[in-house]
Please model this.
Amino acid sequence: MTEAPAINFGEVIGRQPETLYVTPSKPNPWYGTWFEGDDLSVQQRTTLATREIDQSKVEIVKVYRQATSREMYWSTGYGSLPPLFEFDCPVIRREKDGFVRVVTPFGDVKRVIPLYGRLWATAPRGLRQANRHIHTHDWVAM
Model:
């Protein structure tokens, strides 16, 4: 059996952009406040405590989110992918359809998307163009 080709998802550059653009009436659930060396944000820990979830035993997953053009600039040539933000999120519940409910860095509970062996805050853009060397039937299997 041949090994599935590796998918290029883009480069992981951290948890969140250096400069945060905040709209008070519409806070971004993927921004948070971290203490040095802590994997979870202050808001995530507060949500877990409020829900009386044991922080030492909760399942933690990696969630990915592509940067937006408002947050930063990157080369946008054909097949070029946005940089990725990667952060740890506590799991509230795994659902039957494969989706997972997590506590976002802002402390909200959101449903994340299982796609291509990763969990995504939103469906990633441009993966098919950047990975056009992979046949369509290989994408379905992932």
